[in-house]
Amino acid sequence: MAEAKSEKPPTAILSALFVGANGFLGRKMVPLFAERHPECQIHLLDIGPNTDLDYSYHSGDITDFASLLDIFQKIKPAVVIHSASPPIPTVGKGDEKLFFRVNVEGTRNIIRACNEAGVRALIYTSSASVIYNGGNLVNANEQTPYASRHVDPYNASKVRSFLPPLLIP
Questions:
Q1: Domain-located, residue 1
Q2: Rounded Cα gap, residues 38 and 30, in angstroms
Q3: Burial (CB count within 10 angstroms: exposed 0-12, middle 13-18, buried 19+), residue 78
Q4: Domain range enclosing 119
Q5: What are the 10-residue block averages of pLDDT along the chain, 169 residues in total?
Q6: pTM value?
Q7: Which entry of 55, 132, 146, 154 is annotated as an active-site residue?
Q8: Residue 8 lies in a domain
Q9: From CA 98, how far away is CA 22, in angstroms rounded?
């Protein structure tokens, strides 16, 4: 006899802040999250202009800690979902300093703002770039080690965003 799967209702999340809401991933996650958590008050944060998603929008720069903390303290999100990053250029390697500033320093600011604003959970999304050494990724998972060499500044900044002292508030 097959075991019946338990269909527990999702944990109630009172408020969530999506950082990088105008990005490729942010724009996809918000409607999916909203469908699963219809009672959640959703807020969007991005450096770009307001999105066409119908939620409370906050314009901000994650590299500016003071303004970021101000937004976090006003919203008081229970959960922060961070997917902000400069886009990977289709030609060339991109601006190394910009990638570092946003992906490393900006992520540190988000962690610090979460700690100071009493956020209960932070979900940090990244990309396969953190494990990409230049070859095919076969059977890669959460146990795959971080890349030891980087094909471009974007990949290097994504790996660096995961390494200490980032994890130390």
A1: no
A2: 11
A3: middle
A4: 15-162
A5: 60 92 90 94 91 88 96 97 84 82 92 96 85 82 80 75 54
A6: 0.82
A7: 154
A8: no
A9: 18
